[in-house]
Specification:
The structure is a homodimer of 213-residue chains. The first copy, chain A, is of the alpha/beta class and 213 residues long. Chain A folds into two domains: 75 residues, Barwin-like endoglucanases, CATH 2.40.40.20; 109 residues, no CATH class. Chain A is 22% helix and 40% strand. Chain A has five helices and 14 strands. A six-stranded mixed β-barrel of chain A has the order 1-13-10-12-11-14. In chain A, strands 2-5-4-8-9-6 form a six-stranded mixed barrel. Chain A is globular and about 60 Å long. About 2% of the residues of chain A have low confidence. Chains A and B meet through helix 1, helix 3, strand 12 and helix 5 of A and helix 1, helix 3, strand 12 and helix 5 of B.
Chain lengths: 213, 213
């Protein structure tokens, strides 16, 4: 077992030496997004009752929070995923963000989209304790992206809207291509990926990835 | 919407032109492995009854087959995954192959290993209609690899045991590094990945990936 471990480490080191070194690539911490839902004020009231307001469970970045409230989502083939977390505060449009694995489980065709870009995306039913909402569109698989401040962007040598490749150096070893850069004063440096991407690359929230030059 | 699509396609094409062309990389079809279990003759009898033999549902590559029989697996935190397909024929050691997503769901620490390399891997309980088996070790996450014949290996310019990177050119855009090459006369050309890897890269069985030079 130990010999095997040494052999594997040696192999990985030799591989790393043969590759171009990426230690100088700009380092970005990972933030893994589990499936979740954003709701309008109106949809919160339909699902939880007239005048109901979401309650905070945990503060997140950018003024968002994980709510205590959960819903069940049901796709057009009537398959359900229970206990989907609501993220507050309320938004102008309700939006469900799932993984590709979830979309297969639900039997729906959710497109890969940037948050907010829901036109023509998959329909989905949302069930709460006091009512149900049928979203004609709004179910997407989030497109991976990196949030950063203008200062980070300057240091990394990238601009808002750029597309980059990001290297994960670990046992599995994965490069994510077509990663969008989003720059805003309010953004904390983080690469947002979904649970499929995290599990396929064997990375978790807080792990460091590097932008390839 | 249409304008947006054209814009995206243009962006992807320009990105592709900026990258080194990989159209000349050796093409390999993908085979996605869902979670499954291999059993010893003894374990089949414990789970399904004395003298029981697995029945074929579907022929697979390399003389293997998907059996009609299913089991439930339970991790040390007593969480279960139902309807896990058995692959026949029986083997010398029982082995459960799951995804990283499954290992999180089960609450177990399954290592990433090549098939057959189960020493010190995660323990797991297997439940059948007539009995149960507790595997002290045997639960792994399969390490991604490419099966090929000696002729394919020659054409691709690789050898048994080599490690390569494999490029997926599509909407998500992913490069799988640390991919093992396994060469054998009996092997049909195919890259074996698990459901996490397939869903994260948005590829399915039969899609083509390319070995990077």
């Amino acid at each position: 077992m130990e010999e095997k471990t040494v052999e594997m480490i040696t192999k990985l080191v030799m591989e790393a030496m043969n590759q171009k070194s990426t230690n100088e690539g700009f380092a970005v911490p990972v933030g893994v997004s589990a499936r979740h839902i954003h709701l309008t004020k109106e949809d919160v009231e339909t699902l939880f009752g007239k005048g109901y307001e979401l309650t905070k469970k945990k503060e997140l970045m950018g003024g968002q929070y994980a709510a205590n409230e959960l819903v069940t989502i049901v796709g057009i083939k009537l398959r359900a995923i229970e206990n989907v977390r609501i993220l507050g505060p309320v938004r102008k449009a309700s939006q469900v963000e799932i993984s590709a694995t979830d979309s297969i489980k639900l039997g729906i065709k959710a497109p890969i989209r940037e948050s907010g870009d829901i036109k023509g995306s998959a329909p989905i039913a949302v069930v709460g304790p006091k009512g149900v909402v049928y979203l004609q569109e709004g179910c997407i698989i989030a497109k991976r992206h990196i949030h950063m401040s203008p200062a980070d962007a300057k240091e990394a040598g990238v601009n808002n809207g750029d597309t980059v490749s990001v290297q994960v150096e670990n046992e599995r070893g994965t490069t994510f291509n077509h990663v969008s850069i989003r720059v805003d004063e309010s953004f904390t440096l983080e690469m947002h990926i979904d649970t499929d991407e995290a599990n396929a690359a064997k990375i978790a929230t807080g792990n460091i990835v590097r932008i390839l030059k």
